User: Fold this.
Amino acid sequence: MGQGLGKREVLLEALPRMTFERILYIAHDHLNRSLGVLREADPATDVVVLVESARMTSGRNWHKERLFFLLSSARHFANELEAEGFTVRYIQAPTTIDGLNRARDEFGELPITCAEPSSFRQFAQLQAFGGSFVVNDFFLTDRELFAQWAASQKTFVMENFYRAQRVRFGILVEGKKPLGDRWNFDAENRLPPPKNYAWPPYLVHERDEIDQLVATQLGHQPTDAWATNRAGALRQLENFVEHHLAGFGPYEDAIAADNWALHHSLLSPYLNNGLLSAHEVVSKVLEAFEARDLPIESIEAFVRQVIGWREYINGMYWFLGEDYRDENQLGATRKLIPMFTDSSKTKMNCVKSVVADVEARAWTHHIPRLMVLSNLALTTGTNPQEFLDWMREQFIDASDWVMVPNVIGMAVHADGGKLMTKPYASGGAYLNRMTQHCKGCFYDPKKRVGDDACPFTTLYWDFLDRHKETFAKNHRMAQQIDGLKRLADLPELKLRAQEVLSGLDQGTI
Ligand code: SF4
Assistant:
């Protein structure tokens, strides 16, 4: 038994040695008793092994809040399985394979079984080690089914996949037609942050002994934002359905200065490490919709995230293959600018606030990720792989399958448009509408030249100009490229863009 699991180690040593038939390997993102290889597990014949590898804990510059969450959740889960009667080994080892070898040293050359791993790298490692896999049912769409859908498409538009999912699961549909006669309520769901609005209080997750031990080992003072066991994750789900679901849709794209979570569910960490299943989360939301008078625009918006986006991104990760992560079709070579790793290195209010949120809790919702952080990486021409590494390391919910398509395809358009038909580049006007950060910022979102011009505005036009040939044939970019042609001050703007880029590199903008 590994460090941090306490007295049971002693008790287990005293038990008569049982004869096991299988070793079940549980990855740190497969923490669910009812899914994966544990679905059919039997304490009489199966021994359960979790491996906390040194590669996982110290191989990269991981955000400590993220590590804390993943490690503490896994150690809680190991304890829960043990309390249920399983023989569990939580092994700390240099690599996962070293850990599994140690389990075999103890239990003999038993077959090792696990759910299909969630990353190409772990899949290859475990396959080479001779592990056998059961279908990964932490998603509602298995990899083969998704590949069939993708192979049948001319373009991989998420909306088409999502509609097929609605019909396949019979969610918010009447036959093959959408409930409320519309598939999509995005038009209603773009409200700016409200003024003088009473956000519900944040749910607080108290820390227990296991948490404290993990925190001490990491040298980290954890927040109370994240649960580290299933009971806490279920509380978060109830809290969302009760207090946030109704308001989720309208404000889902807003970035508020007075609240870091808005009406977002904060469930992605638990969906991605297995403490909650997509099925139970969607079922709870649909039950609430049946029982209460909730607006369909909020229900649809949430359902879209879980049965649409989440499944689509995972499906595309596997469908596009391992080399997709290396795409860089816009030839972006800039090194990661200092403000990503230190919020004090910028005067840009929006970026400072979003990076400070990431520093504090390893999380911001999808719009700060896309329209602030990714927009900045895209328009500065930051190298996609450097930005991908940073996103993977900093976010609490950042599995490889999430971040590779989201960053390479959606965030920085490095795949030449395989996922998204146009890049998500925007100037300060969008952020002025959707955030409360422009008032009081050193920069002016309406200005594109001059010392106080908003860097987003300057860089947006500079980005379009740098890539105008690439986007010339993209009809969805025609309006922007036309706008570029009408810019009388383009030469001046190009000079200002050089100053901005150099200031960003030096951490002075
Ligand atoms: Fe961000 Fe520009 Fe607004 Fe400042 S003016 S907060 S940099 S968008």
The radius of gyration is 24 Å.
